[in-house]
Specification:
By secondary structure, the chain is mostly helical. It contains 3 helices and no strands. It has one domain (about 1-45). The two termini are about 20 Å apart. The structure holds zinc ion. The site of zinc ion has 8 residues, from loops.
Length: about 60
Amino acid sequence: MEQKACPYCSSTLKSIKESGFVGCEHCYREIKELEEIVRQLFDGKSFSGRKPARRRNEEF
Ligand SMILES: [Zn+2]
């Protein structure tokens, strides 16, 4: 799996997993794998940031 990085904030999947924080709102679009991981990380927990709330019927 290639390591993608968000061009806006330079966050990578790895850095986000390690820190537990998403760099910016663009990360969700730039790093597709992120969305699943964030969903797992923050499922049912408080998340001080933007939620990927718009996703419902896309690509599933
Ligand atoms: Zn970002």
